[in-house]
Structures are given as C-alpha cells and as structure tokens.
C-alpha cells in the first residue's frame, strides 16, 4: 500500500498508546539498520571464517541490498494485504534469523543466506513504521515522525559500527552475533505484544488501491529526471554503503594505524553527519523552496571531500574523524532526492517514484560493495586473510570521487520543479 493513498487517515489526537506502538516498529527499523552495517565491524573475521576474498565478501554482504531493493516495490502491498502486525512479526523473525545463520557453519552459503534473510526482513521495517504512523497519528505529524524514524535508523547504524565493534573485541564476533540475535527476538516479542492487529477507532482506511505496477514503473522510468535523481541519490549514498556498511573500519585502520574499535568510531562520524545534517538540509530546502542548487552543492562538496580522502596517503585518527564527519555532512542532502522525484512525477505514481529511486540507490550500493572488494583483491592480493595494505585501500577508495563526479554530472541535468512538497513528508532514505 502507498501511504499517500490512504486518505485523511487517523482523525484523533496522538496518544501515549500510539507513541508506544510507533516506537516499537521504529525500534525494529533501528535494528534493521544495525544488522545492515554490522559486517563492517567484523570484516576480517568473516573473511577468515568463511575463507572469502574481498570481492567474494563484498558480493555476499551485498546480497542484503539485492534482496532489499526490489522488495521496496511490493512491501506496502504485502502489508496492506496481510496487516502490518502480521508482516512485521514475520519480517522481524526472518531478519533476526540472519544473525544465527552466520554462525552455524563455515560455508559461504550460510553467510549469503544470512544476508538474504536480513535484506528480506528489513525491507518491511521503514514502510511498516510509516504505515503505523499514518494509522495512529494525525496527518500533520507525519513529517516529524518520518524525520524521527530516519534519525533512529542512523542511530542504529552508529551502534552497528562502534557498538558491535566493542562486542567483537571483548566477546568475539560469534558471541556478538548471538547477542544481536537475541535482541532481535526481544524486538519481535515486543511487536507481538505491543502492536495491535487493528487500527484505532477513527481511522479512515479506504479499500486498498491496487495500481497497475508495470504502467506506474513505465511512467517513472520514462522520465529522465527520475534517472538523474536516482543517480544523484546513489552517488551521495555511496560513502555510507561502501565505508559505513562494510569496508570503512578496515580502511581507517589501515591508513591511520588505529585499532578496529577506534576506526569504527571514525566511521560512525558519517552517520552523525547524516543524523544532524539530513533534517537541516531538508528544512533549508523546504524553507527556501529550492532543490537543484542544494543537490548541486552537495554533489560538489562530496566530490571535494572524497577527493581529499583519496589523495591523502596517511592520516591521523583525528583527521579521519573530521573528514568522515565532513563526508557525512556533504552527502546528507541525499534526502532531498526523494522530495524532488515526487515533484517531477504525476501524483498517481508518487509511491512508485519513491520506491524506484530507493531501489536504484540500494542496488548501486550492493554492487559497489562487491566492486570495492574486487579492487582490493586485484591490487592487494591478500587472498582470504582480510588484511590489505594502505596502498590497496588508496586504489579502491578512488571509486568514491569517481562515482561522486557522476553524481555531480547528473545534478547539472536536474530541473527545478514548479511545485514543491515537504522533504520529510515525501520520504526519507529507507
């Protein structure tokens, strides 16, 4: 189901009960982001345990995105058909099972199966949370709830980098995953006991609208602006995908000589940049009523920061902290892509436009994780040890300014729409 097709929605006032229900679903979204980026805190351990090259590990980890991305197009329809509680319970269990699948065997099959389960289960977290927001809160609060949900996702990513790195260091990677699995079980139990099966009284829920999906996709993808915005969004999200979700901790450790725990703290600064800068960028864009200039400046700033990161042969840990924070602040304006793609497409395909943009972004992220690992293998030649030289990472990191330049080129092709919608109201990256 498309949230924008729900009609006026909940007609009452926000209540403590509503906040508890939304908070439970949002907690699952935080957990989903946690498992999305957790491999970055245990990359060498995973390579050693499963006997994988960097490219193979990148491909296995990228399975998450290859499943998550296409599911965005149908996740709302599935929730509409079976109910948000039932779908969230099932998806939380599937997502949680991934933590246990990673430790039950040494075959790479289990790692791929784990990431498949995590990607499939995670695909319903953001849509389900916003579905609940539309049922339990007045329409005037959806923008704030969308922003809060996104902020919780960034918090989950920070925990997934720095938090699990500490657990890996003190308990070992397998014990850390067991702990993560039990946290997922606890969240599933909360969903069972806190989220009701029916919406509250006073909710206007129309019969499910089932648009012609193929026709909607044709409308969106035949519009060049949709492609430009998908490319920009992918380019701005790429630092989070490559460094935040998998390779960042080892990269920072290699070029600074820092410990894994210190390195994950530096990587988390990108998420801090998004956590702080994303809402500010959206507010500025809404207040000024402009999209294209902000996307141009963000793309140019990302090119500059990624180029500086790529050309510095060695850096201290404080410099890494500052540069990665700057990278997060530069790229966080990606959230504007979602509002802009809504403005450039007919209202009847708003949901498809949002889902298609998110799908391009997430698919590109999955491919980039594999490509980064492939470059490490080609120039590093360390096999399946998970240890690569600083020089190997310098070659691989050149991907970031190259991709950012593509995003900047796409930003020059974006047109300013006459009608604007709220950035947070349109959507946030899921």
Keywords:
2 strands, mainly alpha, 430 residues, Growth Hormone, Chain: A, disordered N terminus, two-stranded antiparallel sheet
Secondary structure topology:
Layout: E1 9-10, H1 16-37, H2 43-50, H3 54-71, H4 75-82, H5 84-101, H6 108-122, H7 125-136, H8 142-171, H9 173-194, E2 203-204, H10 213-221, H11 224-256, H12 260-288, H13 292-311, H14 317-331, H15 336-343, H16 350-380, H17 390-397, H18 399-411, H19 423-426
Antiparallel strand pairs: 1-2
Helix pairs in contact: 1-5, 1-6, 1-7, 1-8, 1-9, 3-6, 3-16, 4-5, 5-6, 5-7, 5-9, 7-8, 8-9, 8-12, 11-12, 11-14, 11-15, 11-16, 11-18, 12-14, 13-14, 13-18, 15-16, 16-17
CATH class: Mainly Alpha
- Shape by Cα distribution: globular
The largest sheet is: 2 strands, antiparallel
The CA-CA distance between the termini, in Å, is 16 Å
Quaternary state reads single chain
Structural class: mainly alpha
Percent helix range: over 70%
Strand proportion: under 5%
Strand order of the largest sheet: 1-2
The count of domains is: 1
Helical run tally: 19
Poorly predicted segments? 1-10, 205-210
What's the name of the CATH homologous superfamily? MFS general substrate transporter like domains
What is the CATH T-level topology?
Growth Hormone, Chain: A
The CATH architecture designation is Up-down Bundle
Q: What is the chain-wise order of helices and strands?
A: EHHHHHHHHHEHHHHHHHHHH
